[in-house]
Amino acid sequence: MTELFRHRSLLFRVMLAELRSQHASTILGTAWVFLYPLAFLSVYAFVFLFILNVRPLGFTPVGYVLLIFCGLVPFLSASESITAGASSVLGNMGLLRNTLFPIELVPVKTVLLSQVPMTVGVVMIIVATTVSGHTSSTLLLLPPVWVLFICFLTGLAWTLSVVTVFVRDIIRILPIVILLLMMVSPIAYTIEMVPSELRFVCYVNPLAHFIWAFQDILVRGKVPAAGVWAGIVAWGVVSPLIGYGLFMRAKRELIENL
User: Of 20, 61, 73, 176, which sees the most CB atoms within 10 A?
Assistant: First the structure.
């Protein structure tokens, strides 16, 4: 883990260069950082508000849209981290012999890059909640929840990047997994709307705990429940420990399988 601190300047420069290259050949450029989550929000809001006519108890239409957006922002960040993290080692084979930029930092880079659009999304949510009068002092809890979220995604990226080298089918399976995760993650519905016999699906989904935490802090204006805290702390600690340990143990074998 000390590699991250030691190479922080190099990691930042590589991230900045890649961020610029991602939007260099597009017409709208960095505007996509704003348009991408807004496009998803528009579709979700239209489907649940006007087609399915969903109205969670205690939420105005504006409050419900903010709840959806607050669930979408971390989900899209997780989706990007998972897909880019899984193929990060395969796409950077030359770094296995590079002593200037350790290969174990490549999955970290993908996770940190996914936080750029998430930062934009969170800022948009805070501005919207401020204008609509939903802001609360619970915003002070946002930094630790966000750090635990990044730790969880980093561990997941380390794990998937190693597994993908040995099982290339993972890259084809992940889009299906992400689609299923979108369906079972409480982005546009509350836990009260889920039948009691099916709520375990949400409880075993690690993304659900983080989404609940972000929604509580940013939209509901309340401290997340003890069970939610237990979930995000457990996943935020266990995931990077397992992922980093697996990556470092498999590092020597990666060269032979690439």
Answer: 73
Q: Check residue 55 and give its pLDDT.
A: 73
Q: Residues 86, 175: contact at Cβ < 8 Å?
A: no
Whose CA is closest to 73, among 175, 191, 219, 201? 219
Q: Residue ranges per domain, the chain?
A: 2-21+30-257
Across residues 168-176, what is the average pLDDT? Answer: 90
- Percentage above 90 pLDDT, the chain: 37
Q: Helices in the chain by DSSP H: which ranges?
A: 2-6, 8-24, 32-46, 61-86, 105-132, 142-166, 170-184, 199-203, 206-215, 226-257
47/240 Cα distance (integer angstroms) = 36
CA distances from 146 to 46, 62, 119 (A): 28, 24, 10
* Among 41-50, 67-76, 86-95, the range of highest mean pLDDT: 67-76
- Report pLDDT for 13: 72
Within 8 A by CB and 6+ apart from 139, the residues are 126, 217, 218
Per-residue pLDDT for 37 more than 80?
no
CA distances (Å), origin 248, targets 32, 38, 102, 156, 241: 35, 38, 11, 14, 11
Contacts of 115 (CB under 8 A, 6+ apart): 77, 150
Q: Which whole number is the average pLDDT over 60-86?
A: 89
Hey, how many other C-beta atoms are within 10 angstroms of the C-beta on 66? 23
